[in-house]
Amino acid sequence: MYKFDNNKKKFYVTTPIYYVTAKPHLGSLYSTLLADVACRWYKLKNYNTFFLTGTDEHGQKVAEAAFKANMPPQEFVDSFISDYKKTWNDYNIVYDDFIRTTNESHVKAVQFWLKKLIESGDIYKSFYSGFYCTPCETYVTEKDINSNETVLCSSCARETKYISEESYFFRLSAYQDRLLKFYEENPDFIIPQERLNEVISFVKQGLKDLSISRTTVKWGIPFPEDNKHVTYVWADALNNYITAIGYGNPTKEDQFNYLWPADLQIIGKDILRFHAVYWPAFLMASELALPKHILAHGWIIVNKQKMSKSLGNVIDPQVLLDNYGSDIVRYYLTRYMAVTQDSEFNIDDLERHVNSDLADALGNLLNRMIALSYKHELHEVKAPENWSTKELELRDSFWSYLDIIVQYMQDGYFYMALSTIFKFINQVNSYFHYKEPWKIKDKNEFNEVISATCHSIYSIAILLWPVMPVKMEQLLKTLNINLELKTDLISELSQNRWDKTFMLNKSELLFKKFDLNKEKDQEIKQNTSGATLVKDKVNSTDMSLENIKIEDLSKVIILTGTIISCQEVPKSDKLYKLQVDFGDYGIKQIVSGIKKSYSESDLIGQQNIFVFNLEPRKIFGLESHGMILVSKVSENDNKIVLVRPIEKVQNGTRLS
């Protein structure tokens, strides 16, 4: 029995339940990870949280897979459960319940639900003739049928089968107007909101009553008092969200009333129709509240195709775990697989972001601060009685960022929250570089800089904990802090006056950098299904133009910056070493081959446009952290011109 405190707010999050026809892949990990991130966020806010995941074990699809494996269905589905639980445990995914639709408690609750709706008249017996997609367990609607062609499933584009049999029907048509009214009154029901338009369009085309039983399939939940019929798998599966927490069980009535409705239900966009149309209609018929939000995330793309077992391009989470560890994979999936769109998963891209985001921006900041403090024999860092101007600006900036982060997390846009956190990390790096604590002789001034940095890093660790719990707890221990979820830590961050005392401890490196030029192990490059995870190198002599997706462009950060110093690079006739001020993003060193076209006086104090987030590389022994944008006068002329804003703007302004 779930224990809850009635005096605290609650947060109930669910994942889709996964078909047990294979081991978990990266797509199922992604959905489950998002739920874990959401749950951990509300743990930081001191909510009572309940996290449900599990497996969908009935239906024709599972029965056929079991038959091919020459195993009884129950034995077949049992064989996959340990793989799911092990994967979630390996990735530090902490769920409260793992439901299986073959559980006796679920079977009884679904039969209770069916009987209730039969008695109310929302379920009736009739006859069904039409097309059915077994892989998707989907009935094909009339508007999806073209009589001149083979009937294909609108979801997966595979050929469907014609079936004709007696069936029980749910009166879906009776709920069309109520559904449309609900969507109108709750425009934030679906995340991202633009997917709500797809649902509204579907419903407005007209809803027909839904067949919810089969007589030709035997593997499923028998209909109450009519064992010839087996419950349609979606009517069975969708109800897991209520049966797992006590629906239909008198001994769990208080628990159910406390937890329902779900606060966030996370799914892939391919099953949105079932969750945003059928599921709300089922709940309306049952006189139950509807979920507060459904987050329908995009697909993970591998080699420009949706990741799919049938396409043989699935990625094994275990291979990634063995090579990168759980927190790195968690970070990359949460930040760079945007929930609003389909996103390409790429090993090279993962390693680049580990180097730039985690090792350079965050890990290096911590390492420099700890090393410098130990060098000055500063182990106990106390907050000053009065903060100086730059430190107050940094603290106030964090509070401003925190408001944005909280809103993104509340709205389900976790990747945007992470992006905002890293804006603050860049600002802390800029502050640390500006203050140059390695040059400070005054002990009080040095202590103030270290204290401000400690407070900033502490805040960053708390905010990143839902995504990287192991690494952030390790980081907090370097500040001598054990994470305790006994208070609302997010509210405390918003009210924190920077008055903590930190005891600094040395620790092993948080993040190790990858050698991006090293050939990847064959196991990483290619999983057992043959899905290549590393993009082929592009031939630099190929001048053909290739279209890119908007998400590819969104990865490139182009900022305005002012060149504050320019020095010649010894033994080079074309290179300058530039120091560029990017405002809140800090000062970065960029090495550029523009010496033959511009003098030092032409550049110092001038505002230009730069690619900001290039992987650092060494040129003539100097590390370059970006690229200045230039254009040739013509293809036949080696003279270049700099790309500059026609009017001066704030340093760090992003081009979009």
Topology:
Layout: E1 10-14, E2 18-19, H1 26-44, E3 48-56, H2 60-68, H3 73-90, E4 97-100, H4 104-120, E5 123-133, E6 138-139, E7 161-170, H5 176-185, E8 190-191, H6 194-204, E9 210-211, E10 213-214, E11 222-223, E12 226-231, H7 233-238, H8 240-243, H9 253-259, E13 264-268, H10 272-285, E14 294-297, E15 300-302, E16 305-306, H11 317-324, H12 326-336, E17 343-344, H13 347-375, E18 380-381, H14 389-411, H15 414-435, H16 443-464, H17 469-478, H18 489-495, E19 502-503, H19 522-525, H20 550-554, E20 558-568, E21 576-581, E22 587-592, H21 600-603, E23 607-611, E24 617-619, E25 622-624, E26 627-628, E27 630-634, E28 637-642
Parallel strand pairs: 1-3, 1-13, 2-3, 3-4, 8-14, 13-14, 15-17
Antiparallel strand pairs: 5-6, 5-7, 7-9, 10-12, 11-12, 15-16, 18-19, 20-21, 20-23, 21-22, 23-26, 24-25, 27-28
Helix pairs in contact: 2-3, 5-6, 13-15, 13-16, 14-15, 14-16, 14-18, 15-16, 16-17
EC number: 6.1.1.10
Motif ('HIGH' region): 18-28
InterPro entries: Met-tRNA-synth_bsu_C, Met-tRNA_synth, Met-tRNA_synth_2, Methionyl/Leucyl_tRNA_Synth, MetRS_core, NA-bd_OB-fold, Rossmann-like_a/b/a_fold, tRNA-bd_dom
Describe the protein in words:
Its EC number is 6.1.1.10. Homodimer. It is found in: Cytoplasm. The protein has 656 residues and is α/β, with parallel strands linked by helices. The protein has three domains: 288 residues, HUPs (Rossmann fold, 3-Layer(aba) Sandwich); 159 residues, Orthogonal Bundle (Isoleucyl-tRNA Synthetase, Domain 1); 87 residues, OB fold (Dihydrolipoamide Acetyltransferase, E2P) (Beta Barrel), CATH 2.40.50. Helix content is 40%, strand content 19%. The chain is built from 21 helices and 28 strands. The strands form eight sheets. Strands 1, 2, 3, 4, 8, 13 and 14 form a seven-stranded parallel beta sheet that branches. A five-stranded antiparallel beta sheet has the order 22-21-20-23-26. A four-stranded antiparallel beta sheet has the order 6-5-7-9. Helix 5 packs antiparallel against helix 6. The protein is elongated. About 3% of the residues have low confidence.
